[in-house]
Amino acid sequence: MSQPRTPVFAANWKMCHGPVETGAFVGRFAPRHVRRDDATVVVFPPAISLPAFAAAVSGRPDLEFGVQDVHTEVKGAHTSGIAAAMVPATGATWGLAGHSERRREFGDTDADVGRKLVRLLEAGLRPVLCVGETLEERESGRLETVLHTQIREALRPLDREDRSRLVYAYEPVWAIGTGRTASPDDAAEAHAIVRDRLAQADGCDAEGSVILYGGSVKPANIEALLAASGVDGVLVGGASLDPESWASICAAGG
Ligand code: PEP
Fold first, then answer.
1. Which of 13, 170, 171 maximizes ligand 1 atoms within 8 Å of its Cβ, making it the mutation to test the pocket?
2. Does residue 128 line the site of ligand 1, with CB under 6 A?
3. Does an H or E element contain 153, and which?
4. CATH code, domain with 119
5. Is residue 2 part of a domain?
6. Each residue of 14-69: pLDDT tens digit?
7. Crossing angle of helices 143-155/110-122, nearest 10°?
8. Which of 49, 68, 114, 212 is 20–30 Å from 166 (CA)?
9. Containing structural domain, residue 123
10. Atom of ligand 1 nearest to the CA of 130
11. Is 17 noted as a catalytic residue in this protein?
12. At what angle do helices 184-200 and 143-155 cross, to 10 degrees?
């Protein structure tokens, strides 16, 4: 029997909101956000803002948070790297892996993403594996191949039990930060591809896996996207930076 899928509303702040702005954000967001028992809300601030986020949400255990990236190695001479094992001490319980900006700007490969998933799981963090195609890949008919490859290679180093602990985010690269959103039908099609691929992978609970949509989600389109078949929540960049806009997104589908 598959687990029921609890919706997740996730905010990726990227390189925005340092410690001071983080405190101010939570001060405006927290009173506007009514705790939901039917959904999980999680914010991924920049690593340097994790302690400020933790301090600002103390007393609000419903506001979860995570790290945007970790190093592939456990520890050592990797200047500027963040070891997954260092993260839980901040109170963070989640971690992103494979965001397209990491793949594009820092050259993260599918194998790197797999190693990062291993590190996150070793540290007891809940990973979100991000996958998605470029416009060129979509227009040349390679959507399915790209998603299958990204998932297969990232899952390769994970054992069966660990695989069942992942959350997935389908994020078409052409919709990230561009204002161009996938239609609900596009999202449903891609989510079905992701779920089909999970059904082929040893140890994955395809029907029980939470798959988020990400790419220019905003208050104006959140309801339509959440209503799309197989969309279990959202990963939001730009529209999560404003407390009112993020509160409105987190109230959707309730
Ligand atoms: C993201 O960074 O994961 C994202 C989806 O960004 P945006 O919402 O700004 O497109």
1. 171
2. no
3. helix 143-155
4. 3.20.20.70
5. no
6. 999 999 999 999 999 999 999 999 999 999 999 999 999 999 999 999 999 999 99
7. 40
8. 49
9. 8-250
10. 3
11. no
12. 40
